Amino acid sequence: MKKIINTTNAPAPIGPYNQAILTGDTLYTSGQIALNPLTGALNNASIEDETTQVMENLKAVLDAADMTFENVIKSSIFIADMNDFSKINAIYGTYFNAETAPARETVEVANLPKFVGVEISMIAVK
Prior knowledge:
CATH 3.30.1330.40; 6-stranded mixed β-sheet; 6 strands
C-alpha cells in the first residue's frame, strides 16, 4: 500500500505527481528544483542558491514523512552543466555525514524543468 506525502513546506507539484510516495518503510521523493514553496518563484541567483533551495525542499519532504537526511539511502542528481558539479557537491555535502552518506549518481542532462541548473530526487528508508 502506498501513502501520498505532500507538504506545504515544499513546492506544490506542477504536474500529475506527488512530492513523495511512502510504501512500507521506503520513501521515494519526486525530483525537487529550486522553487521557493512560499512564493513559487525560482531561487536561482546562483547554482549554490539553487542547490540550497533544492536541499531545503527535500528536507521538508523528508520531514513530512518523519525522516531526515540520515534515512536517505540513494540520491539522484541531475545537472545542466557538469562544470557546476563541485559547487553543487559542496552544498549537497553539508546535508550529510560523510561516513553515512547515501549512494548517488550525478548525471548531466540537456535540460531540466524551468531550465534550472539542478534537480535532485532521493530514496529513504525508516
